UniProtKB/TrEMBL annotation:
Lineage per the UniProt record: Eukaryota, Metazoa, Ecdysozoa, Arthropoda, Chelicerata
PANTHER family the record matches: RAGULATOR COMPLEX PROTEIN LAMTOR3, REGULATOR COMPLEX PROTEIN LAMTOR3
Family of the protein in this entry: Belongs to the LAMTOR3 family.
Entry-linked InterPro entries: LAMTOR3
Pfam families per the UniProt record, alphabetical: MAPKK1_Int
Protein origin, superkingdom: Eukaryota
SUPFAM superfamilies: Roadblock/LC7 domain
Gene3D superfamilies registered for this protein in UniProt: Dynein light chain 2a, cytoplasmic
Protein name per Swiss-Prot or TrEMBL: Ragulator complex protein LAMTOR3-A-like isoform X1
Length: 124
């Protein structure tokens, strides 16, 4: 089943030019499911980087504007999009020139996969 999910992530990645990786992690940055190309930056795939996102989401929630649902960051060569789907986080790493709107649009397409993984994580 995990291989089918990984294949599904690769299919989704093929729809958008410039996407390097899609990761679904727990709040501690531990990968539950990961699909990446060879061009994905190694540092962005590490749990240390991914765990920072969970902390940033929690801190952003303290701004008094409600719980953070999405975070988009653009750096020199890359952009990173995160979806908060407690207890999971979906992270996408793409080139800075990739279409951000299309990346954000993947949230709906990934929702059924995330729901399945949530059910599995809740059991464990």
């Amino acid at each position: 089943m995990a291989e089918e999910m990984k294949k599904y992530l690769h299919e989704i990645m093929s729809q958008i030019d410039g996407i390097h990786a899609v990761l679904i992690t727990d709040r501690d940055g531990v990968p539950v499911l990961k699909a990446a190309t060879e061009s994905a930056p190694e540092l962005a795939l590490r749990p240390g980087f991914l765990t920072t996102v969970g902390m940033a989401t929690d801190q952003a929630g303290k701004l008094g504007m409600g719980k953070s649902q999405r975070i988009a960051c653009i750096y020199g060569k890359y952009q990173v999009i995160h979806f908060n789907r407690f207890p999971l986080m979906v992270s996408m790493i793409a080139s800075s020139t990739a279409n951000t709107g299309m990346l954000l649009g993947l949230e709906a397409e990934l929702s059924s996969l995330v729901q399945d993984l949530k059910a599995a994580v809740d059991v464990i």
